[in-house]
């Protein structure tokens, strides 16, 4: 290294500092997990420069090199933006396709981001040039080589060729816009225009949007402001179809149920109305250009005789399942104007008729695996009640209005366990819950001694000739047990004796107002739960 001049030492010092930084960044970029993540997020977050900038910032923080974001966002899109664009494009290629190489590869660095003195410096080192800090042969040779370079600098010819190809693509895009009014072309053979694959050319420009200059982006935006929308291009293409129809027949609106539109356009517009709140604000603005404003969407949803989209019923089923944790709907249930019980019954019939899971059935099974059981829905609904009592309600769920209490649910489970041989299809469901329920007694006294002192004075005297040996307290306990568990009279626990006397006494006490006085009596707080349950039970018609 004897005889080196300032140019060689500056080059060496720069490489000593820069090379370890380049290796650290490159090591992170070859990580397969990062490559896969970029491929997934390119559809949204990393599709424009606003998405690459936070990506560069986060990567710099993880590598403890905060300068990375500064370098990337200074001026035109930097090398990291190109790496992101090419990596995402490679992720969309079929497996086994060769990776892009050379100036098209993700490791290439455009001329504006290459150190200008690299080429000259390496040539000087290879030639073993002499020192001459004061203008020796080494610097003179470098100056001579510099004078022989094209006036555009390194990569000038390549940049010129890229500019020519881009200008040719823009011209073809302009002719297509003059004819059809948009640039939402398909990425297939339908995107061929006069032998030129304009659809594929535009798809590549979208994938490399972060690498386009401001002037190039402006040229495309001038042809079609939504040439690179943040939603699928297919959506934009269908929107143009509806716009052509609206231009010929007038704007669409929600007050006529979209009648008169071609079936395909009706289906598409109904889907947009169904998910209107989830659409991008830009999409909502484009729908407003068709006449379908937020007000018209509301008119459509409240139109009394409109046909409902199947997706609306599925959304109602999702709402019910999220609220109660199952789809065992047994009574009249209306959600957002959808008769969910009737709709689910129809879906069950269709699946049983086909003899195989339908596409709708598959989606309902994801909400509730037992939405279409081969046994009574009331049994399945009770099973879900037991399941939730023993395992806890799912997050965000709540009890449905007629859900049984824990005591009634556990009593029902033990009854099913006793008759498991008669339930061949449900044996496994019962077996899954029986160990969780435990083996404790079903019945326990509920009336406190202090409450009984008050209640004893409210009970009528026994009729003449009544020779039963059971006390009124025992009979009242049996009545409270039935009210608490919701079971039928024959299922009174053995500890409370025969059910016939209890049922007869219950009917007499309800008729003469005795049970009403018991429910209205002032009792200790520990007796309040069974009082409330008994009040609800005696108000039921004909229990």
- Alpha-beta classification: mainly alpha
Give the overall pLDDT as a whole number. 77
Q: How many H/I helical runs?
A: 25
Can you summarize the main beta sheet?
A: 2 strands, antiparallel
How would you write the strand order of the largest sheet?
Answer: 1-2
Quaternary status:
single chain
Q: What is the percent of helical residues? A: 55-70%
Write the layout of secondary structure elements.
Elements: H1 6-29, H2 32-41, H3 49-62, H4 67-73, H5 79-91, H6 118-127, H7 137-148, H8 156-180, E1 192-193, E2 196-197, H9 198-207, H10 214-223, H11 233-249, H12 263-274, H13 281-290, H14 294-302, H15 310-324, E3 334-335, E4 338-339, H16 340-354, H17 359-367, H18 377-391, H19 406-418, H20 427-437, H21 449-455, H22 472-485, H23 499-511, H24 514-520, H25 528-538
Antiparallel strand pairs: 1-2, 3-4
Helix pairs in contact: 2-5, 3-4, 6-7, 8-10, 11-13, 18-19, 18-20, 19-20, 22-23, 22-25, 24-25
Can you put this structure into words, describing what you see?
58% of the residues lie in helices and 1% in strands. The protein is built from 25 helices and 4 strands. The chain is elongated. Mean pLDDT is 77; it is low at 129-138 and 145-151.
List keywords for this structure.
two-stranded antiparallel ribbon; mainly alpha; 543 residues; 25 helices; 58% helix; elongated; single chain; two-stranded antiparallel sheet; 1% strand
